[in-house]
Amino acid sequence: MTSPWSLAGARQPLPASDRETSGALRALEHEILERVATGRPLAEVMELLCRRVEAIDPGVICSVLAVDRLGRLRHLAGPSLPEHYRAAIDGLATGPSAGSCGTSAFLGQPVVVSDIAVDPLWADYRDLALPVGLRACWSSPIKSSTGRVIGTFALYRRTPGGPEPIDREIVASCLHHCAIAIEHEEARRRISELAFRDALTGLSNRTCFQAEAEQALRIVADGHGGVAIHYIDLDDFKIVNDTLGHRVGDQLLGEAARRLLACVGSGETVARLGGDEFAIIQSAVAGRKDVEALAARIVAAFGAPFDIEENRVRVGASIGIAMAPDDGCDLVAILRKADLALYEAKGQGRGCARFFTPEIDAALQRRRVLEHDLRTATEARAFELRFQPIVDLGRGNTVAVEALLRWQHPVRGSVSPAEFIAVAEDTGLIEEIGEWVLHEACRAAIAWRPEVKVSVNLSWRQFRRGGLMADIMGALERTGLPPERLELEITESVFLSNSAAVGETLRDLRRMGVGIVLDDFGTGYSSLSYLRTFPFSKIKIDRSFIADLVFRPDCAAIVRAVIALARDLGIRTTAEGVETEEQLDLLREEGCIEGQGYLFGRPMTAADVTTLFGLASQQPVARAFAANDGPRLALGGARAS
Ligand code: C2E
Ligand code: MG
Ligand code: MG
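A: This is the predicted complex of the input protein with C2E.
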């Protein structure tokens, strides 16, 4: 028969033997609380409780079950129940007629079944209980401090019948102990989840990753197997986050986590280290092939686009790999090496994997030092401009001057931009430096005769930021230089990012009167096609063609073709790197309009270029290079930088 099991009886005065029971239960309480407090495993504590109860109340069989978040019963302790019985109960759903425990958990009330053989609540489980001799079962819900059912506490007997007063007393006291122990365990698990899981993706977090990596490396250090650490960074994640918002960014990270998990086996740990950085610990690695295979799977997994809230985005993965024991077994060193390899992968066009090598280490060390020095230099404004004349090959006068950046390094002296521009671009420092160059170049030019232009090099990175137009206008306004006297030199690389927006900016500049020059013509992949898409004012034929002009007929043919093509398109041509008379003669024969190079003058200070080339606004043309006669090269050695 089923009836709610009132616990009021436990409060009635107790006979002498019951006083003994009370004492034993108090001792048990003490024992349980102490074990919970010292962090003993929940199953162990519950098992002890069951054994003690069975000793206090001979003839009962005690069982404790937990209820999981999905409402299923989970075996916790039942040391006197047969193994197969315990296993059969584990995972059963709670419900309105699910034995004593399942029903009690479902109703949130005590359930007394005096005879399992006849009670309808046991209809589905009778065949499980009767063969092992269980006839009666009284189960009560264990509730959390907020009233949620978190488990059941049950006493079985081998004979039919209801609970005795002693049973009631045991249940009343044990429900309390069980609640404390289970809640304590839940809290512990939540804390450890917070401490070791990444909340957004559910992957291991950095703390967990480090602990596991350390353990994996210890095994390798003891001479067993190999481990690879893959550092993974998503390409262009920042752009997605900035343009589509953090919600899309978060979903992308979640999907990225799922793709990474799908690439690994059960023995591998996938962690999110922060932002869009992930890492994988690949253990039991037999050889480099295993590692390459995993890296290839990851790169391929990120080849497919991500569809998030009606947005289709492409985000690749770059991977840096370090291996133990080959690259050492020290965690800090391995992580640094994987990071360096990642840096290399990013530099090599992204969407690829790179293994650490000692060469990477040396190159990157140098680069880090350069980066650091450059940052300091930008703050201290340790830059200077040099100026190199651009000469009209027909008339011999200086028509323009190119501003070239120099870094005055405290130890290395004057450093060429060829060495540091790329670093300045990667770090974004070029934006600040570039603004300064624009202003300084315009300031120098204002002192020159009005027909002399100043040519300033721009980096692709300056087009990425919104403020380029404002920088240019600001420089012109503050110095008073007319826009027609400014030329901007760009290379093909500026078109690679967002050619539509770049084209728009360039057209605006041309409308203002600013000249746009295609620099280093011939070195890119599709120089010719850019000539079609944008009306450049001038193209500069790259130095490499001029250098071989005299000795290599093919170079001469290219230069000739470019000059002719530009002439047909109405674009002026400048030959870069003119160093010899022979080159000059050939260029003039082919009809090249302007030349720049050591033959006319090396890059020099503003004061030198102004006086040596007679550029001062009030002065007559004094010592300009004459086309047909006179000491052409008197200026060639002037104060080289
Ligand atoms: P570029 O714009 O093609 O500049 C011409 C380079 O060729 C300069 O190197 C110049 O010194 C060198 N040069 C000129 N005539 C001769 C010659 O007869 N023989 C040889 N061998 N070389 C000659 P520099 O000053 O080292 O600049 C290298 C590159 O750095 C420049 O190439 C330009 O792309 C970049 N750069 C220079 N200044 C700036 C700047 O302010 N901003 C940006 N973004 N890039 C700059
Ligand atoms: Mg240039
Ligand atoms: Mg050039």
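The first strand starts at residue 2 and ends at 3. Residues 1-16, 619-641 have pLDDT under 50 and may be disordered.
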